[in-house]
Design goal:
This protein is an alpha/beta fold and 150 residues long. The strands form 2 sheets. Strands 1, 2, 3, 6, 7 and 8 form a 6-stranded mixed β-sheet that branches. The model has no long low-confidence stretch (mean pLDDT 95). A hairpin with a 2-residue loop joins strand 1 and strand 2. Helix 1 runs parallel beside helix 3. The chain has a single domain, classed as 3-Layer(bba) Sandwich (D-tyrosyl-trna(Tyr) Deacylase, Chain: A). The protein contains 3 helices and 8 strands; from the N terminus they run βββαββαβαββ.
Length: 150
């Protein structure tokens, strides 16, 4: 399972000119589900994201967690995080989990985040989305949890 996390001042996602998710200060998380991923990887990633110290406290830059600042999280499904461009000029998505299975793990991941009590918003799984954000920093973190890392 792969996540591209961007600390933001605000972010939103629209589908067919309709806002489906929007947040203020927090994280925009693009989530890719690999074909061998399980709920274990989803739980690990959700916990890792909630416990990262990426917010300033006035003195130190990376001192507070998103829980401590009461931030929000916008999760957007993005199977293209599993795009492989090693061969040819078109990406291969063979390592991405098929849609219906990936949607179940995506929703499980979102549910794990919601247990934190923070404001959690999402895009629309499988839809063509427009994503906007004001990245605060800029600050972008790549997080990956594969079964071999257990």
């Amino acid at each position: 399972m792969r996540a591209l996390l961007q600390r933001c001042l605000r972010a939103r996602v629209t589908v067919d000119e309709r806002v489906v998710g929007a947040i203020g200060k927090g994280y925009l998380v693009f989530l890719g589900v690999g074909k061998t991923d399980t709920e274990e990887e989803a739980r690990f990633l959700a916990t890792k994201i909630l416990d990262l110290r990426l917010f300033p406290d006035g003195e130190k830059e990376n001192h507070l967690t998103i829980r401590e600042v009461g931030g929000e999280i916008l999760v957007v499904s993005q199977f293209t995080l599993y795009g492989d461009v090693k061969k040819g000029r078109r990406p291969s998505f063979d390592l991405a989990m098929p849609g219906s299975e990936a949607k179940r793990l995506y929703e499980y991941f979102v549910d794990q985040l919601r247990e934190s009590g923070l404001g959690i918003q999402t895009g629309e799984f499988g839809a063509m989305m427009e994503v906007e954000l004001v990245n605060w920093g800029p600050y972008t973190i790549w997080i990956e949890k594969e079964l071999k890392d257990v």
